[in-house]
Predict the structure.
Amino acid sequence: MTFEQMKIFVAAAQYGSFTIAAEKLGLTQSAVSVSIKKLEEKYGVTLFDRSGRRLRVTEAGQVLLTEAERILRDVDLTILRLESHRSLDDRYSIVACTPNAYDFWMPKVLSRISEASELPRIELVRGRDEEIKAWVMRGTAEVGITEIEPSHPQFHHFRVFSDRFVLAGTPSIAAAVKSPSWETLTGLGPILWEESDLTPILMQAFEDNQIDARRIAHKRLHLASTAAIVSALEDGRCAGFVAEHVACHALASGTLVRIGRIEIPIHYWMFSLKEREIEAFVSSVAGTPDVAPAA
């Protein structure tokens, strides 16, 4: 399988159309179709269900899509890392962030510290927790930021931001459910929460408080970000757990209100390989004069 075949397959899967994939890649529709056909013939699998108006990835296709997207992201990040060494005057450091850190924390931080001459130029990249830890381990990214505390002995890590999950809903939902506690939460369902790198934090809190997540989870809606959860909650049909900092605008405007006093801490950890000295950068990001490594 060539790199070009992988790019063509991923584009076809993302757009659900050979024609649109061809337009995006600057190829002919027949070139895309032939490339996919060669992959299917070589490996003896069907990658797309072509029976409907839109291409659908098969089970075998999903296996390839997951791995191909990861490989292409790794290649793009490697190119970015390579380009960061073009010249001493144009060096920059790559900081890999989980989605909430990338969207809601680091842009403001970098705006605040951008004038500090002793700090290198920063290039932010976005990824999942496991990807970020792999990139930092390989040296593809110098620094990672994630909500799941790193445990590998080759990393040193520092807590830089704190947030919390709170239960929220529209004012009408809040009035209907009054002030739930952990003891009464099971009777409140269905409840929404994001299915992302933050999910283990919620699941641990549920386990600690003897809550069966399957009993309260929404059976139909499965959303992958706090922004998506906020949008669904604004419809006023159920309550949900949201990261307070991420949902601050909806909470400040009164579109959503906090329900009860249940809260679950979320901490963001900055980490790198131990041989890298990142304490000065950590202090700048955290906004504190001294930052000690996590125990």
User: Anything to note?
Assistant: Confidence is low (pLDDT under 50) at residues 288-293.
